[in-house]
Amino acid sequence: GAVVSQHPSRVICKSGTSVKIECRSLDFQATTMFWYRQFPKQSLMLMATSNEGSKATYEQGVEKDKFLINHASLTLSTLTVTSAHPEDSSFYICSASPGLARETQYFGPGTRLLVL
Amino acid sequence: GENVEQHPSTLSVQEGDSAVIKCTYSDSASNYFPWYKQELGKRPQLIIDIRSNVGEKKDQRIAVTLNKTAKHFSLHITETQPEDSAVYFCAAEGDTGRRALTFGSGTRLQVQP
């Protein structure tokens, strides 16, 4: 149980285009999902907290107009990188916790984004 | 906000030896501390976690200890095997309302056969 999927697994795009990444909880409902970014050989940095049916909460320094988050259902959250630039190239990973109580976060497999 | 520091950044041990990774955190309100193992290009996998009402937890070759007074927690791996080689991250849940995790900088563990 507690499986989280992400799509696509990797994407290459031209500078200026937008890229949408999907995060799904496959066997549980998640009222909250988290989006992280990980640069090579670095740690995971929380970008935003995605809340079902409400606006996302962004971490300091993360542009909400550039990284659009939508949590349309209890099993799906999307991250859209708008007008992507080479510096946005990174490994984007989502996570989710089953249930409402404080429980373990399970991570998706990640999406490797390369902006040319 | 929460700040988590992790040491060492790299650790090389001989197969069969023990490995210890240490983390400190800043937010005294934090009360959930998971450890994740990440292999190259893959997702972080939870290997063990501990909550603040417990001082130690063990699962086979892996154990975690927590000292809330000193605000530090450690991962102990005994009888290391080459497949234990990976990057290990500690984390702390600092904002009880959002359940967001703050990660340490990671430790690259290399187990030499």
What share of the residues of chain B lie within helices? under 10%
Low-confidence segments of chain A, given as residue ranges, are none
Largest sheet of chain A: 7 strands, mixed
Number of β-strand runs of chain B: 11
Principal-axes geometry of chain A comes out as: globular
Mean of all residue-level pLDDT scores of chain A: 91
- Class derived from helix and strand content of chain B: mainly beta
Rg calc of chain A: 13 Å
Largest sheet of chain B: 6 strands, mixed
The oligomeric state of the chains shown is heterodimer
Derived structural class of chain A: mainly beta
Task: Set down the secondary structure blueprint.
The complex is a heterodimer of chains A (116) and B (113).
Chain A: E1 4-7, E2 10-13, E3 19-25, E4 32-38, E5 44-51, E6 57-58, E7 67-73, E8 76-81, E9 90-96, E10 106-107, E11 111-115
Chain B: E1 4-7, E2 10-14, E3 19-25, E4 32-38, E5 45-51, E6 56-59, E7 62-67, E8 72-77, E9 86-95, E10 100-103, E11 107-112
Parallel strand pairs in B: 2-11
Antiparallel strand pairs in B: 1-3, 3-8, 4-5, 4-9, 6-7, 7-8, 9-10, 9-11
